[in-house]
């Protein structure tokens, strides 16, 4: 144990004959023992425990996929160009689903899993997507002023509601499956990642073929759109089961051509009624008042359309 020393000094003054002051200094050394606590080393895990933990961390499919992707990234550029990352090859009969999301009420988003197992042509894909959308909309009040406008690639959280069934919870826009999810076989799309931009298929091209399935890209959309492999994205009627996955969200908006036609017709009718009243009744002021009333009603109708669209 270490020893810590402390010094003590005493000074004595004395006066000798003749007024001379004598100073005497005495120093004494005192020693004190200060104990130093001993640290107990932490017990390290055994070799068996370390190997078991390492095996568990490496066993999940996603972990294996991430490790494989990182290993491929560490290769030289020339090797990547020659061999590339080897994605899994799915048999022809492997189940694959396109997850489609759309509004189903003021505060609810519904989900449909479109089976694309035996689909190899874009026209069939877009027809099946349009049929699923129209079928879901037919089950509720169809507002003719609200139509599909564009799409978002989304990552969603699926919830099960006891009365209305499966519904989208949290969502993340402009998101597609990561390369690890494709490599692990949970999703499939080519090329991965997209060659240009961040979308497998641009939203404008998707919406064009969605509204006109006959004008398509052959089989490009079938290959490029992210598809859920092997099983659909579902809660299986279990409120405690909250799966997450990727899909396509159809964004709705105002049917501006129809809105323009309705407003134009109302203005023409207003002008005709006001003119007829003024001529028949010889009352220009009364005709103007009727025209103003109808114009005000037109404004109310347009405002209601906007409010419904916001909800």
Runs with pLDDT <50, length 5+? Answer: 1-8, 29-34, 75-83
The major pleated sheet works out as: 7 strands, mixed
Number of helices: 9
Bin the strand percentage. Answer: 25-35%
| SSE order | EEHHHEEHEEHEHHEEHH
Shape: elongated
Q: What Rg, in angstroms, do the CA atoms define?
A: 39 Å
- Structural class given helices, strands, pairing? alpha+beta
**Helix content range of the residues, please?**
25-40%
Instruction: Report how far apart the termini are.
Output: 79 Å
Mean pLDDT score: 76
Number of DSSP E strands: 9
What would you say about this model in short?
The protein is α+β, with helices and mostly antiparallel strands and 311 residues long.
Descriptive terms for the model:
transmembrane; about 300 residues; transmembrane helix; alpha+beta; membrane; two-stranded antiparallel sheet; elongated; seven-stranded mixed sheet; about 25% strand; single chain; disordered N terminus
Provide a descriptive summary of the structure in words.
Residues 37-88 are annotated as: Disordered. The chain crosses the membrane at residues 258-280, 286-308. A hairpin with a 3-residue loop joins β1 (3-16) and β2 (20-33). With 311 residues, the protein is α+β, with helices and mostly antiparallel strands. The radius of gyration is 39 Å and the shape is elongated. Strands 3, 4, 5, 6, 7, 8 and 9 form a 7-stranded mixed β-sheet that branches. The chain has a two-stranded antiparallel sheet with strand order 1-2. 39% of the residues lie in helices and 27% in strands. The longest helix is centred in the last third of the chain and has 27 residues, at 284-310. Among the domains are: 96-254, no CATH class; 257-310.
């Amino acid at each position: 144990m270490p020893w810590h020393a402390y010094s003590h000094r005493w000074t004595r003054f004395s006066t000798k004959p003749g007024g001379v002051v004598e100073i005497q200094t005495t120093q004494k050394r005192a020693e004190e023992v200060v104990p130093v606590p001993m640290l107990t080393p932490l017990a390290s895990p055994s070799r068996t425990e370390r190997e078991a933990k390492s095996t568990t961390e490496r066993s999940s499919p996603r972990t294996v996929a991430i490790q494989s992707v990182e290993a491929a990234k560490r290769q030289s550029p020339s090797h990547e160009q020659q061999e590339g990352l080897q994605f899994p090859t799915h048999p022809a009969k492997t189940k694959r689903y396109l997850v489609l999301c759309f509004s189903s009420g003021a505060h609810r988003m519904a989900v449909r899993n479109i089976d694309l197992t035996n689909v190899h042509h874009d026209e069939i894909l877009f027809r099946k997507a349009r049929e699923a959308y129209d079928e879901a909309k037919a089950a509720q009040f169809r507002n003719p002023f609200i139509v599909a406008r564009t799409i978002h690639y989304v990552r969603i959280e699926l919830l099960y509601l006891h009365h209305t069934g499966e519904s989208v919870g949290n969502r993340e826009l402009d998101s597609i499956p990561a390369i690890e999810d494709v490599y692990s076989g949970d999703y499939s799309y080519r090329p991965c990642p997209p060659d240009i931009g961040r979308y497998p298929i641009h939203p404008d091209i998707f919406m064009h073929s969605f509204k006109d399935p006959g004008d398509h890209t052959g089989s490009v959309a079938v290959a490029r759109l992210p598809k859920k492999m092997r099983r659909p994205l579902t809660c299986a009627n279990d409120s405690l089961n909250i799966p997450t996955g990727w899909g396509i969200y159809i964004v709705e908006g105002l049917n501006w051509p129809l809105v323009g036609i309705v407003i134009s017709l109302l203005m023409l009718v207003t002008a005709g009624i006001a003119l007829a009243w003024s001529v028949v009744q010889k009352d220009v002021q009364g005709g103007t008042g009727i025209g103003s009333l109808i114009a005000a009603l037109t404004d109310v109708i347009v405002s209601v359309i906007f409010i419904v669209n916001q909800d």
